[in-house]
Amino acid sequence: MAYLTIAQFCRVGPPGWSVSLAVLSRMTQRNLLLEEMTSPEVAAALAAGVTSVVIAVGAVEQHGPHLPLLVDAARGDRLAVEVAKLIGGALVAPTIRIGCSEHHMSFAGTLSLRRQTLEAICLDYTVSLARHGFRNVYFVPSHGGNFGPLADMLDDLRAAVAPDCTVHAYTNLIGFMGFWQEAVAAESPGLEGRVGGHADIAESSEMLCIRPDLVHEDRAEEGLVAHFDDALAERIFRDGFRSVTPNGILGDARGMSKAIGERCIRNAAEGIASDLMGS
User: How far apart are the first and last CA of the chain?
Assistant: First the structure.
């Protein structure tokens, strides 16, 4: 069976032309990014049954002395694509690149949205996509500060587009941490204790896979090494990141590798996709 791009699909059949799931899967592997498609290509994909869309919700904020501010936005770009591939029949909308980062504002360069601003953006994304015919909208946070706001706004997002469109969101921050810990333990046994949740061995390793040109490995160091739980999260969101880690790292960034990074990305995507498809 021939490999078709979306553009080729637009030329081989009229609107509503049905293709097998095998062809549809191959067609969407080439380019899942909504913003890189033409409007006719999007219309053709919708007509062919590509009616799900994944949206990463990232951040631009400090990530210690060794990583750039764009970490969560760049990770969101990659994570959304991986989740969309696993869900199937899904495109990827542009990442929401700024999130709720008030707890990082004591570090220079951090940008933050108010919770109501983020909700307004997510609402407008959802309504726009639903109006075009998308039937499942999946929000995937790539920044810890967005998990809670997404959980709080989910009912309102769903109400805005019901009954024709369903909105899903992954909102288990502690569960996400488990994906990273399992990945590091599998790839580099003994180093899983360096997973802390922010600018640590896991996140730094992911950036070696995504934007290695922006990773300063020689500046990697230890931050607060502690078990990440609800109590620690509450303290961070209440008192700010600097109150628990002066260098902005939770965990230890040393020992990062591309192998760990790819395993972390894969583990997180699989766990998130499984959760979203079951919701």
Answer: 33
What are the residues facing 250 on neighbouring strands?
198, 224
Give this prediction's pTM: 0.90
Q: Decide if 82 contacts 210 (C-beta within 8 A).
A: no
What would the pLDDT profile of 56-109 be if each residue is shown by its tens digit? 999 999 999 999 999 999 999 999 999 999 999 999 999 999 999 999 999 999
| The dihedral sign for the CA sequence 118, 54, 69, 264 | positive
The Cα–Cα gap between 127 and 137 comes to 10
List the one residue out of 211, 213, 195 whose CA is nearest residue 264: 195
Integer Cα distance of 99 and 156 in angstroms? 18
Cβ contacts of 48 within 8 Å, gap of 6 or more: 9, 17, 18, 19, 24, 27
Give start and end residues of each alpha helix (H) in the chain. Answer: 6-12, 21-30, 39-47, 71-87, 115-132, 147-161, 173-187, 201-210, 230-239, 258-278
| Cβ count within 10 A of residue 43 | 15
Q: Alpha carbon 235 to chain centroid distance?
A: 24
DSSP conformation letters of 19-40: --HHHHHHHHHH--BGGGS-HH
